[in-house]
């Protein structure tokens, strides 16, 4: 029998418990997923590229019926058909399995596609799910429109909920507890271990959106999650030039999830997977710089007379700071501020419209700084948003913080007089 020429074994061995407990180090970020799947030969010469090349394929050709049958039986990370990927996608999956400490991983065309596929995989008509009130807005809309249509009911919960609070929300038919921590726009940090304990007791799956933390700063599978979801579009790609979602599963969730995901046609082009693999190699240095720069700017903002408070999990005064300190290994560069009472949206417009170094736009996680005026009011039902003034979200990039602060200083001049 002719075996496929490239590719690792059909299943990835589960990691040892010891390996799971150790946070990904720079060495792992540098090497994860590389040589295992990246080998390539040409005219019999076995050479390896540093990076797994971009293999583009729809049809894969087989030498024989036996070869075809083997491939059909062993579809996971073997040559089969382009939708199942090539070594380019497999190496990124390998890397993420290693960094998150999971059993296996899948790629999705966007972070949102990863979230909706995961939610859909683990609920059926008549089920109930729990979703944080601070979930990324399109996740919330998916629940309210698409899941409602198939008869799945969503309860939104306070992200600062305790185990007792969670217990009181669990129903007989609760199949999924979703966690996104810190929350979108407002950054409340949830007590994942407490939430997961309650969910497990009731047999519900725990899915965690870990886009803010990345595997470098937070590994939800170590805290009771069944699946981690990354909008890799953000820090993993890291350069604002590709869309990608990644899911990493524990062993118990893998089979159901991978069937569901493939049958829904979730596939990613090798070029985009390549960009994510390339971004991943510098994740650790970028994240540490985002953290340092973000904290410098956040602390400066906290001292401004116009600012009511800064919403950043690493600031001691912030709700959920203790949980962040216990469970996370660092903070990314994304946070927000709330202005004092009396400032209007027009004041904010005057401030942000003319910022020179902060681009205005959705998404974040690239190397560049961004600003986004945002109002969470319409997206909250469990904990109504009640802030003295307007909210502004910042993504702090890799520029010199002195330059960023000078730009913001000029922005505050335009914002208007201290109120
Ligand atoms: C951006 C984002 C997503 C969605 O990712 P896309 O790749 O833009 O679809 C999901 N969750 C969080 C927390 C995000 O910030």
Note down, in words, how this protein is organized.
With 419 residues, the protein is an alpha/beta fold. The chain has helices at residues 17-21, 26-31, 34-38, 65-73, 87-100, 111-121, 137-149, 163-169, 192-201, 214-217, 251-263, 270-280, 283-302, 321-327, 345-353, 401-415; strands spanning 39-42, 45-48, 104-108, 128-132, 153-157, 174-180, 205-209, 227-231, 245-249, 307-311, 334-339, 359-360, 370-374, 391-395. The chain has two domains: 17-280, 3-Layer(aba) Sandwich (Aspartate Aminotransferase, domain 2), CATH 3.40.640.10; 283-415, Aspartate Aminotransferase, domain 1. Helices cover 38% and strands 16% of the residues. The protein has a seven-stranded mixed sheet with strand order 3-9-8-7-6-4-5, with helices on both faces. A five-stranded mixed sheet has the order 10-11-14-13-12, with helices on one face. The protein has a two-stranded antiparallel sheet with strand order 1-2. Helix 15 (345-353) packs across helix 16. The longest helix is centred in the last third of the chain and has 20 residues, at 283-302. It is globular. Bound molecules: pyridoxal-5'-phosphate. Pyridoxal-5'-phosphate is lined by residues 110-112, 115, 136, 180, 184, 209, 211, 231, 233-234, 243, 245, 363. Residues 110-112, 115, 136, 180, 184, 209, 211, 231, 233-234, 243, 245, 363 line the site of pyridoxal-5'-phosphate.
């Amino acid at each position: 029998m002719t075996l496929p020429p490239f590719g690792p074994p059909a299943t990835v061995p589960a990691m040892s418990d010891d390996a799971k407990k150790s946070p990904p180090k720079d060495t792992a970020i540098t090497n994860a997923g590389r040589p295992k799947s990246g080998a390539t030969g040409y005219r019999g010469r076995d050479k390896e590229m540093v990076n797994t090349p971009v293999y583009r394929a729809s049809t894969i050709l087989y030498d024989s019926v036996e070869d075809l049958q083997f491939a059909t039986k062993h579809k996971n990370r073997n040559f089969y058909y382009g939708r199942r990927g090539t070594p380019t996608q497999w190496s990124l999956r390998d890397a993420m399995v290693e960094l998150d400490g999971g059993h296996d991983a899948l790629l999705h065309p966007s972070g949102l596609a990863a979230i909706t596929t995961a939610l859909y995989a683990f609920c059926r008509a008549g089920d109930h799910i729990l979703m944080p009130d601070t979930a990324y807005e399109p996740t919330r809309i998916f629940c309210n429109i698409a899941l409602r249509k198939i008869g799945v009911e969503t309860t939104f919960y306070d992200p600062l909920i305790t185990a007792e609070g969670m217990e009181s929300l669990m129903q007989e038919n609760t199949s999924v507890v979703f966690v996104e921590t810190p929350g979108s726009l407002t950054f409340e940090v949830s007590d994942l271990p407490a939430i997961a304990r309650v969910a497990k007791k009731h047999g519900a799956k725990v899915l965690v959106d870990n886009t803010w933390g990345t595997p470098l700063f937070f590994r939800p599978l170590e805290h009771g999650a069944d699946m981690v979801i990354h909008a890799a579009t953000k820090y993993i790609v890291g350069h604002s030039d590709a869309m990608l979602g990644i899911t990493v599963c524990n062993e118990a969730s893998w089979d159901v999830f991978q069937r569901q995901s493939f049958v829904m046609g979730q596939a990613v082009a090798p070029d985009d997977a390549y960009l994510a693999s390339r971004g991943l190699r510098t994740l650790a240095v970028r994240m540490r710089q985002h953290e340092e720069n973000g904290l410098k700017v956040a602390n400066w903002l906290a001292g401004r007379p116009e600012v009511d408070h800064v919403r950043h999990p690493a600031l001691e005064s912030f709700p959920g700071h203790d949980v962040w300190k216990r469970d996370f290994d660092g903070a990314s560069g994304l946070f927000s501020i709330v202005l004092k009472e009396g400032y209007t949206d027009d004041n904010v417009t005057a401030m942000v419209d003319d910022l020179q170094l902060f681009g205005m736009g959705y998404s974040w996680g690239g190397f560049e700084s961004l600003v986004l005026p945002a109002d969470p009011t319409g997206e909250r039902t469990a904990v109504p948003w009640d802030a003295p003034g307007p909210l502004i979200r910042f993504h702090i990039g890799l520029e010199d913080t002195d330059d960023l602060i000078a730009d913001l200083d000029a922005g505050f001049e335009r914002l208007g007089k201290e109120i």
